[in-house]
Protein 1
Amino acid sequence: MAKLILMVDGVGSQHFDIKGDMLRIGRAADNDVHIDDLAVSNEHAVIEKNQDEHFPDHVTYKVRDLGSTNNTFVNDIQVSTKSLNNNDMLKVGWSVFKFVDESYPSMDTTAYILPD
């Protein structure tokens, strides 16, 4: 499962699981991620979950800005729509979130190849 982690001074403070097909972000109270910040539009952005049609076990996520006044940023680059990768940083208004995809394969594992 993927999630957004609100980062405060480099430390994760709140977690928002992406449970359904979409996670709504904005200033309005009915958003999944409610941000009480005048720099955030009422309906600012969404994170959409997409099932890969060729690989049924593979899920991808993308962020889509909903025409917000102050834009949405991924890794400090303004985006309108952007696929998200594990550990990407998402900025909405003054809030910074870390995108974590727990199903993302770990590249820390080293393979050992047996000699012939």
Note: The radius of gyration is 16 Å.
Protein 2
Amino acid sequence: MTDEYFMKMALKEAERAFEEDEVPVGAVVVINNKIISRGYNMVEKLKDPTAHAEIIALTSAFNSIGSKYLPDATLYVTVEPCLMCAGALHWSKVGKIVWGATDVKNGHHIYTDDRNPFHPKTQVLTGLLAEEAAALMKAFFKQKR
């Protein structure tokens, strides 16, 4: 299993969000090459501004393994985490974060002056399947206009 494979699984979650008229962001949490949780944006469905793909996937992962920390996990998410999600990822001590497209309007980077908001031991990989993730976002917002 590769990072690209798991990012494709996150993209499938983003497509679910798109189909449900949610901003198309998807996430999966992986430990030992096994997906232990999945999530996609459910903000509108749940009427909850914190129901981002990352938060849904993290909460499910915590419940799955019975821990509040995920040092052996990798989170794959289709779009750069926002500041709220970056904070949740920091506190979860997730081992690795992989995201696709940069979020130029709401990504954590616009608030952090290029400082790393994640746990110091967290590895970060960006830009994986970014074009696919960005295309899904553009299609979603194009239909909204």
Note: The chain has a mean pLDDT of 94.
